[in-house]
Batch of 4 targets.
Target 1
Amino acid sequence: MTEVLPSIPGQQVTGSTLYELRRLVGELARTGRPAFPGSQPVSFTRTHTIPELLNEDYFVCEKSDGVRVLILMVLTPNGPQTYFITRKNEYYLAPYTCFPVPNNERFDQFHHKTLIDGELVIDTEPDGRQVRKLLGFDVLCVSGTSCMERTLESRLGYLNDHIIRPFNRMCRRVSPDYARNIPIIAEMKSFQRSYGVPLLYNEVIPKLKHKSDGLIFTSVSAPYSPGTCQKIIKWKPAGENSIDFKLRVIQDPIPQIILMVWHGENKYVDYGSMAMRNEDWLSKFSLIPDLDGRIAEVVYDPKYSPPALWRFMRFRDDKPHGNHVSVVDRIIESIQDNLELDELNQYMPQIRDNWKRRHA
């Protein structure tokens, strides 16, 4: 089944306003550049990651299957404004969405120069309704003051106390008509200490109303780091490992979809063929216009249509490029040097004992 990603609420920003917002975000994130400054995880490997978890404090949360966004909050002459920033570095002005500062029961003072990190997911309620939810999991800046050098525990406290909790209090207190127009609900991601993987899988993940496809381990002591961060580690079961490639269609003589890997700038190199059966082309891909050049997420499935290894999962039109070749190499290494969940759980007692020993 093809998974549907949540849409970004609001109107896309262009022109000089977009330029100024990108400049401001580069300033708040301390990159000095207008590019998307969100941190990106590396893939889990047994060789590198297990020693990290044994010797350093990490928090762990479930990996939601959604759309990554940064959220910028600013005050303007037109009032408070909230922008959702995609990995394509697109900015969307969200309607009816503003985040009040804490300890403001009149809800007439709002965040300015605040930048947080999160993910949009679609929650499916028991009655079938679909709800767009923002899951907050980090913060870069609050009211113009950087939080990036703080510990993860401190950053999560700021995120909850200064942003998520006041927002939810406001949503409960405003008129029902106004609340219905707010395009998101918001909550914190559930973080556990690194040895809490069994708790996540036994208690947290079964209660989720959206799809989860793995775990994210984040160092407690490491600062927030824009770009690829070695201290944020993504674990997926072997059957869930996926890569984003750019597609190219050829007829040789039967149709094939070539997966191309990104080498930086605008350079792509052929990587291999996508796993595809004859009926896949006839019933699905032949009917899709403009297939060439789209970004697709493919999942590792060597049994689907050998010798090809990667089966189509969904398009990722939210991403400007496929995964960089260095990321692809790390994912391949992860597949070859990975742990299944039961193996990972076997390390939990030792990880817990080492954690408690460090804090004794």
Note: Residues 240-337 form a domain with the OB fold (Dihydrolipoamide Acetyltransferase, E2P) fold (CATH 2.40.50.140).
Target 2
Amino acid sequence: MNTAAAALTKLPSHRDVVYELRSVSKTFALRRIQALDKVDLRLERGSFSSVIGSSGCGKSTLLKIMAGLQSPSSGSVVLAGTPVMGTRRDIGMMFQHATLFPWRTTLENIVLPIEIRDGKHAARAKHEDARRLLELVGLKGFENVYPNELSGGMAQRAAICRMLITEPEVLLLDEPFSALDELSRDFMNMELQRICMAREATAFLVTHSIPEAVILSDTVYVMRPRPGRVVEEVPIDLPRPRTLDMITTPRFGALVEHIRSRLDKEAL
């Protein structure tokens, strides 16, 4: 096998299930709206999954339930063998905007979750871990820089470090690069893949972009609206590490077209 072929690896077919949702439904009683209907998800350790669907299909509600920010009306949500009853330190979240505090340095922003939960002494003890994370994401030397001196992409890299500092079991990503320009977004997606592979992280992404879901994911969950429900799990059989060159391949195009046609069908 040549070097290039050896570098393209597929993930193991059988891994531990880290996060599982069983028949999760959510109804907002005051508005009499059923946002989710019997959603089933299984996230295996080290896998990258995405959910995609039209606006209003319940993606944001699903992510809030997975994060412990909302409770389901029925069904079960289990992380690492324990029911999710609220926010937890083993759940990492990343949002559309980095939301770094402008009066804190990059390093201080990264250890903020530790400081909030465990105090300043515990946060200082995590400084070396934070420095290693900064090196992992390519921000070595920016420890004492303030957010207004960082570009959008650099700020999101710092946000990745802040998400990872608590060593979470699962990473929940809410369109983290949607505010970036297209070139920066593509680059950051490749960086996110590299970081997740290096950390063997389990990740779940909410996105409106079909190509983004395909290039990053092992599985894409397609949702229908009103009420939100998973109508198909699409396995992405592209080898890893993924590259942007794959976007032009016939297989990538076929996967994107399949998901788009399924979304179009559900929108009718």
Note: The CA atoms of residues 5 and 266 lie 38 Å apart.
Target 3
Amino acid sequence: MKSAVLFVSEEFKEEAIALVEGANYKIVRIYKLPKSPNVKFYIQYDKLQQIKNDEEISTLIVFEQLKPRHFINLRKELKGKEILDKILLLLEIFALHAGSKEAKMQIELARLKYELPIIKETYTKSKIGEQQGPLGAGTYGVESTIKFYKRRINKLMKELENIKAFKEKSIESNKRNNIPSVGIVGYTNSGKTSLFNSLTGLTQKVDTKLFTTMSPKRYALSINNRKIMLVDTVGFIRGIPPQIVDAFFVTLSEAKYSDALILVIDSMFSENLLIETLQSSFEILREIGVSGKPILVALNKIDKIDGDLYKKLNLIEKLSKELYSPIFDVIPISALKRTNLELLRERIYQLTTQLS
């Protein structure tokens, strides 16, 4: 296991630690992000020197989006050590859990698009003699790399467009066959896959690490003799970078093209975090084009909740209806203990019947 030093704000500390450990790094030190980032390196210069001289540390992770110049200067200063910012860390986790060819293509596209400006700036500096190109190849080597990146990006974009077109035809076919689709959406680790398993009787991988579900899982289940296509989608994260949303459009579009949605919310969150999670969930759904679809909100993990469940339930119902319409219902459940799952199944049936 590679050892890493992590720079992160207090606000995202818990999430960042879960992500870094989910990417199989051992965190040996944690520092707060600087209030005034260093122009050249982003992190504080004295901390940089400590990392440089510490042979135990193999990776520097900055849980923020770095600029190309930061990467170039950090790589020059920390030769032999890996440099990751928030986006590259997320893409590394995605790559670890990618199951389908489509997911792997999306990850590669996002990585190439993100790295291209870094390569271009390296090219600019190599022309004026400030920076050697990748692998010491000089200006010609960087030019070749840029051309390769552009060709590969164009190819991947065309292939993903073809997948998108094929999926849309498949979805239209399901609609002609009168099979409604219901997408399960929500934040990573909210219990989406546990709910999918409980409703379908399947055993999709469930993990406390973030991003267990990397490509959507589909299963046709029968409720009161009505066939319904259930889809377990990729989870959201707080402050998801636009580059990730764009690159994962095809996967996230499972939610856009579903006839209805189940939004899973973790009831163990504090009231403030519940409010923040709801607001950002509906914001992400709007960003990917979800509008006017009925949503069933499932308040999950009620078996682990301390305090007033009904207070949280009322808060979720009131705020959901303020943020989005139509909200079909808000139901407290435990996917793991199967609490209220029959009620949820009945409400899914009623919802899909109204869609016909």
Note: DSSP finds twelve helices and ten strands in the chain.
Target 4
Amino acid sequence: LLMRHYLKILLLLLLTAVFLIIVYVFVTNSFFTEYNLKRNEKYHLINEEYEENRALNAQRYNVWCVFTKLKKTERSLEYKLKNMLISLVNTTSLVINLNIVVDTSSRYVAKDVVNEILKITGKKFEVEYHDVHVLTNKLQDLLNVMRPHFSSQPGAYYSDSLFFLSLGLYRVAPINQDRIIMLDIDTLIKKDIGQLFKVFQQFNSTNVFGASPELTPVYHHILYVYRNKHKNTSLGEPQSSGGFPGVNSGVLLLHLDNMRKSSLYQKMLTKEIVDSLAEKYSFKGHLGDQDFYTLISLEHPELMYLLDCGWNRQLCTWWRDHGYRETFHKFSECNSPTKIYHGNCNSIIPEQ
């Protein structure tokens, strides 16, 4: 009888222990489930915040221009910058993030111009100033590769470091800038720059830059030796005849994100490749970055997105008076409506 009593007590204790274990498992499971839910919720919130910030950065409309080498007695560059910026902000409803590359002498002039435009237009835009020497000092390796092939001689106008800046901007621009438009200050914007930013949506993963065709025979001239050896080539021929006349860098779309990811583009920047291509095409340029963009497009057109000529309606007629009077019209032909005028060669930009 006593043994039976002990067995009952033992059974009761066993059942109590099992019950407590079940309760413990249930409570612990509930705690971790709630913890994981909260953790997942926090993770999704962080993820959403990250995606929101990423989208915000992607929507920043970054426009770059270079404003350097001012002369004390010459105000033409200041006048050009003012006109370009007024046309830029007056033709868009976007809030532009303006990036101005300056040197010691131009920084304060640029700030005065910007302040004046803010008052004149009443438009809101953001401004960042970048020291040209800080940027180019970080790109000396690249500049040393480019100068021998794309400037006429040491000390020449286009031998200056700033004329090669766009090639390495993917290395020195703020990392949150992944798509930028770079404008020469001798341009005048006629249509909403937002429409040009939309062109980035047409880039594929291999396109690292976008540029309009060159509207003069400069590369027809530079490629003279190559064309003589390759009689049927379309390289250097006017676009109106189905050729490729090279590109002009007065208006550039730079897909910095693609540049950062493209092993092919970065390979194109090496001395070995630039030397090899310059030899292959008998190419000796004098126009800085646009010579490089033209040269790599001859070999790897997939790196380039060819813009509508209306986005860079060049007005220079120098070549018409220097050996190409009979054929110049074939190169300068652009049947697209003008969206940006480019007053290169100090050309006068039409008021209307």
Note: The mean pLDDT is 89.
